[in-house]
Amino acid sequence: MTIPRLRGAALATAGLLAAGALVAPGPASAAPGNPGAPRFSPGAPSIGDLYFPDQGNGGYDVQHYDLDFSYDPATRFMDATATITARATQDLDQFNLDFRGPEISSLTVNGKKNDFTRDGQELIVTPRPKPKTGQMFTVVVKYAGIPGPVTDPDGSIEGWIPTDDGAFVVGEPQGTPAWLPSNDTPTDKATFRFTAKVPEGLTAVGNGQLLSQQTTDGWTTYVWDNTEPMATYLATITIGRFVVTESVTPSGVPSYVAIDPRLVTGSANAVSQIPKMMEFFTGLFGPYPFASTGAIVDYAPQVGYALETQTKPIFSNTASVGTMAHEIAHQWYGNSVSPERWKDIWLNEGFATYGQWMYTEYNGGATVQATFNSSSNYGRAASSSFWQIVLADPGPMDMFSSIPYNRGAMTLHALRGKVGEETFLRILRQWAEIHKYSHAATTDFIGLAERESGQDLTAFFDVWLFQKGKPTSW
Ligand code: TRP
Ligand code: ZN
């Protein structure tokens, strides 16, 4: 799904041209001297992200994912039908999806049985008849078997992670193809619907709003509707035994909170502050971008991190107040505005961490300035390895280290000092508004900060984002 940008449209076009130039033109089937005729070629097998070279594909733009499946935690067996609705962005004689899931029993394009091959994460489809530029097409993939986790370069796991009572489902940065054939890039957002059938007594919790819940013959089917564009890495349909609490925030946003019974007591404080966080961040960042909120607190201690899954952040153990604030802040920065490339990860983690610092101050804890100064932040010695990584391109091993989080937040705090309180808040709000439901890169942020402040910030961003070493003047 492509959301038109209010500004930066010229940049977006330039990006498309550059990406297209990387793709070797396929054999043209148009007759010479007939420029209007279709020129079919394969869509690119990758989006060109250097951190995860297999991720994403070209030639089409997904509008909607519909996944209808059953899952039995006792056998870990999934039986699924995925329906992907996409628009061709070129005359296509072949395209790829990203998929690492279980065995495919059939694949159709526009209702016709279709050949496909699999090669690692690539599911390669040769549609007949071939979609032409601008045409919508529908791919239906039926598959069944045991989905599993994906391991990242930094050793962390995501994807489909079985738990003692279900499955913990997260996808950042590359886990969603473990269970859903998809265009796994934050630059192709889509709406999602999950229909999940699980043994009675278990709950399947997905992004967005619960449309229905029905039990027959010992199985309960949950239908979840995520109505705003979402990056694939933010999808979840987590399954387990949960205590569910539904409510509405003071601003009227429906909230659905599911907590593993073992973690209810320990997570009560964090969960009870969701409404206050929603109000605080709405006041600071602008309108909340989604139709619902909530949280999933599951017991998957082998995962060891929380994730800002869209509309409902997910925790792999007891939720803390600080992490809850971080994940709620991500709904604006990370989820509605996603990184164009993974090297831009500080735009996610620095912003969410800064939101967390601001909430801590608002909530009567340490001031943002004190947090900035502390020994885990600016107080780190200049000799620390913490300063030896380039924030604007930390590499896949440091995507989720303290570099994008803490140095990212410090960069925003330094910017606040540089441009002043009012301009800084305007920059934060504009960032959320201009790139709502879309994606953006570090250069877009620098451009916005310079426009809003009227300052040349080259030297500022150079020391904070592009150079190694502890910034001493800016
Ligand atoms: N983005 C998550 C957060 O900040 C953290 C996260 C996602 C993560 N994937 C990860 C951390 C992999 C370590 C490893 O809440
Ligand atoms: Zn984060």
For the structure shown, list the relevant keywords:
2 domains, Neutral Protease, domain 2, binds zinc ion, single chain, zinc ion binding, alpha+beta, Peptidase_M1, Immunoglobulin-like, signal, globular, 474 residues, Peptidase_M1_aminopeptidases, binds tryptophan
- Return the CATH topology of the largest domain: Immunoglobulin-like
Largest sheet: 8 strands, mixed
Please give the number of β-strands: 23
- Continuous helix count: 10
Radius of gyration: 22 Å
The CATH C-level class name of the largest domain: Mainly Beta
The CATH architecture name of the largest domain reads Sandwich
User: What is the terminal-to-terminal distance?
Assistant: 39 Å
Provide the number of structural domains. Answer: 2
Helix content: 25-40%
Shape category: globular
CATH superfamily of the largest domain: tricorn interacting facor f3 domain
Mean pLDDT: 94
Low-confidence stretches: 6-30
Pfam families: Peptidase_M1 (PF01433), Peptidase_M1_N (PF17900)
Organism: Micromonospora endophytica
GO biological process, one term: proteolysis
Protein name: Aminopeptidase N
